[in-house]
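Table 4 source record.
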Amino acid sequence: MKMLKCLAASVVVGCMALAGASAQEGLKDEIRQPTLDMLKGKKVVFVPMSMSFDLPEGWAAVMQKDAERRGYQLDIRDANWSTDTGTRAITQAITEKPDIIVVQNFDVTSYARTLKKAQDQGIKVVQVNMRSSYQTDAFVGADWHGIGEYAANRMLEVCGKDKGKSGKIAIVQGPATAAASVYQLNAITATLKDNPNIEIVSSQTGDWDQSKARGIAQTVIQQNPDLCGIIGFWDVMDAGTGAAIQESGKDIYLITSGGGNKTACQGVENGTFDEVISYDVPGQGRDLISTISILLQSDKDAGEEKFVLYTPNKIITKDSLGPESCWDLDVLKG
């Protein structure tokens, strides 16, 4: 019993001594420096579809600030809207043996073999927003199935025959083989299949082109005077879709999706869009840098473990518009 009392007293004294030292000097974070050392001097190569639009610009801004803060190198290789250029950029990066390659795919097939080659060479690969059919170490980006499912259900609520509307809707896709198209379209058709309240009268590819989307919408509206709604697959492209609706003078509900740049909020505010499903580029950027940090600290080999981070959606409407609804690239870079 005396032994136990002595031990208890020793613990109390020790804890009091530690508490006294902590109060005077604080506690040293023993894992901080080793963590920073794991990141310092590492190399990350980013190969976007193009650095000419908001999504890659936003991701790059977040990654660049993190690279400067944590001491790793970020090297951007612009594919400039060319799968050939992008493939060459990834192939060249493989020869340089960076620690991580971050890729925005054009479609589900073009980079598949090259990404596998990178992992076979021991390079970890992160895909952002646009998935390949080949699964790499990580995917960070939009849940395209979830976005399509939401848009389809909203059209049932807004345009369904049981709501007293025509039930007629149209779809303006991106390129037919892009992840944003194939997974979103599958979700829309699965949700609306055999539903008597909705009829898809047109489903065409706008190829991310504003002018092409505008032309498609104009034609569909002319052919279907009682068209109730349109689901578009990207707000930048669907500025053209919205323009065609406004020109027609008809009340046609337009749902689109995008990264949530300030132009999306402006489009909702001025009536170009009724809803924007935002996958929130700053949030995706945060998920990207977290993924990079995890992979650089991990001792697992490339391809040994695989995970997905679907970024939460933010629904932007006139009713939900607020100061935090959208982001500004200049602020993000600042």
